[in-house]
Amino acid sequence: MPDLSATRADRLSSLRTELSARGLDGFVVPLTDEHMSEYVGDYARRLAWLTGFEGSAGSAAVLADKAAVFTDGRYTLQVREQVDGAQWEYVGVPANSIAGWLAEHAPTGARIGYDPWLHTRAWARDTAEALSGRGVTLVAVDSNPVDAVWHDRPAPSPAPLTVQPDEVAGAASAAKRAALGEALAEMEADAAVLGALDSIAWLFNVRGADVSRTPVPLAFALAYADGTADLFVAPEKMTAEVAAHLGNAVRVRPRADFAAALAELAGKRVAVDPDRTVAAIPDALEAGGATLVLRRDPTVLAKAVKNPAEIAGHRAASARDGAALARFLRWAEAALPGGGETELSAAARLEAFRRDTGVLLDLSFDAISATGAHGAIPHYHVTEESSAPILPGQLYLIDSGGQYRDGTTDVTRVIPVGPPTAEMRDRFTRVLKGHIALATALFPPGTNGGQLDSFARHPLWEAGLDFEHGTGHGVGAYLAVHEGPQRIAKPNYPGGGPSEPLLVGMILSNEPGYYKAGEYGIRIENLLLVEERQVPGGERTMLGFETLTFCPIERMLIEPTLLTPAERHWLDGYHAKVLDVLGPLLGAEERAWLLAKCAPIGG
């Protein structure tokens, strides 16, 4: 096996040599790509290539004699497992920042490079201001120096686009573009730049296979107030079916022409989302004579509020996915205590159950398959090197999901490998209590996820416990498993910005957890649909949640005496619905197992 730490030390050294040749004293390496994506194609995985960090949020800064990797509380343990501490300093955010670290460590007069195709304008402005007081200059580079030393860098994916049928999407692309055109007219804009890959996939009712686990094509788009659009995509990725689907109102142009095409908008008012657009785009628009209209991507909210066809599709996807997960849990209950299974083998077995449906198109993310101490790493990523044996006495956590044509799933369950301890049962039950509190919450329109977050934490807080990640994220419709703008999280949770009011039709996760470093992790995750609720005797329409995910919650880990009568009633009702939804999809022996798992909990 190669010495990866030595390999990455060489990569860091090569980057420093390249920076010196360019007259730069440092460089910032974000995780994202030119579309501000959370998950990126292999060609854009610069941070992982350079540092070894495999998480979904992070960045790095390199100086001539120092380097640091920046992660939030979700990755405190993971970054130390994956990144060589002899080469890299570990820095936590948001308590610290790249700008602050550079201001402290960069020498006076230093020139720090950044790639304007990988950062927002706001980041560049704020970082430049923070550095200027120390005599340090932030410099936009014409080409990325990491790419110059990454000699075996993969090419962007050549996968063709596919059509997302209108009956599954719930609205034709022409209708979506017309609605977007009306939004542009209201903001007195002539056009909008779309850089986010899921926004483009949603607007044009197309999908792709260019980013692992997220069915989006690599593309840019310009949408106009008259309902027409320019779609910039590599020509070899187009098919006759997709061309016919897009029609004459969509002009298909090479992706490589996008940057130059921005000059064609001279004299136009162009809507640009400052949070979802890299700095190079507004810079080019202004240089070409366009006027910027700084507004949120007009597809974001429309995409987040699912229409009836998307909701029906998600229910169907959740049922088949729940049946696959139930088959896996039944297998795991019998197989894991005997030994011989690992985190990788268990994840592969679950994927096989999902593929047995015959309609799985991809996983929605790499499964978080974590046993024992690895379970205490909320976003643990199992590799060949890290895969641990699943042993008796441990808790095994599996957070996973599938991509189906009609929906995207995300679900977490915990399996005890042998009898759990009293502490494990206590912690699991407190997590369950928080899960139930959120699932049953009633709230008035206008409420945002930050206002609901404490519902899920209160049972843990009562015992002096908490968890360091968000409680819920939005989920796409055969799109990104992490979709904004809706979320349920502490107001100061990494990701920033005001929390979005929840609207009928939004889908979010409900996933409180507990993590004991070095020992085990617990998380219970279902997906929720925001819906209207009428309260008997109430004076106004309220909002609440419909649970969309159905799969048994492990009763061996529940301490019934900690549950209130109302909580036991919810759990028994949930398991009754699990039987109704999954029972018809399972064989006789599987149904018998499920019946035992879903029996009333008792007191």
TrEMBL record:
Task: List, for all copies, the residue spans of the domain called Peptidase M24 C-terminal.
Answer: 542-601
Question: Which keywords belong to this entry?
Answer: Aminopeptidase, Hydrolase, Metal-binding, Protease
GO terms for molecular function, please? Answer: metal ion binding; metalloaminopeptidase activity
| InterPro entries the record matches | Creatin/AminoP/Spt16_N, Creatinase/aminopeptidase-like, Creatinase_N, Pept_M24, Pept_M24B, Peptidase_M24_C, X-Pro_aminopeptidase_P
**Superkingdom of origin:** Bacteria
Q: Which residues form the signal peptide?
A: none
Q: Would you identify the family this protein belongs to, as annotated?
A: Belongs to the peptidase M24B family.
Residue ranges annotated for the Peptidase M24 domain, each copy included? 314-532
Its protein name is Aminopeptidase P family protein
Q: List, alphabetically, the PANTHER family matched.
A: XAA-PRO AMINOPEPTIDASE 1
- This protein's GO CC annotations: cytoplasm
Where is the Creatinase N-terminal domain positioned along the sequence?
11-142
Pfam families reported for this sequence: Creatinase_N, Creatinase_N_2, Peptidase_M24, Peptidase_M24_C
